[in-house]
Amino acid sequence: MSALVVFESIYGNTRLVAEAVARGLSESIEVEVLDVGSAPSKLMPEVALLVVGAPTHAFGLSRPNTRHDAVTKAPSPVTEPETGAREWLDTLEQAGKGVHAAAFDTRIGRGWFPGSAARAASRRLGALGFKAAIGPESFYVVGGTGPLADGEEERARQWGFELGAEIAHLPPA
Description:
The chain has 5 helices and 6 strands; from the N terminus they run E-H-E-E-H-H-E-H-E-E-H. By secondary structure, the protein is an alpha/beta fold. Helix 1 links the parallel strand 1 (2-7) and strand 2 (30-35).
């Protein structure tokens, strides 16, 4: 039994959260972390948990135009991703029995804002037959490009730890 954490990141904030989540998960389950551009469209049979992370763009998952806009706003040069979580989820094969899923996003500020990449990813994962292991979670950045807000990396590790402990006790989906 293993977990796969797939993330989309332009500024590096979502990558940091994905890596922290994986550190927390690794206390209970074997885990692999992959950028969405190198993630498989078919999960290996040993994957019991899929975690998807993405930045919230325009109230949801990024699109080619929102990724392009984000690249133009980067404080230093970054490469524009060809694939985002939205496109990858569109290619992902339906889950076989026994695969749970969770989603997280990175977003600006701590107040209420409409839309969430994590909620959008969770809905797509459910439509593909994944069973929700835990509700979607948001992690916060300071300003449009980051860095992560104080304490968010540790909170992500703790969320991963709790998710791993939950998965270890869940029956197959």
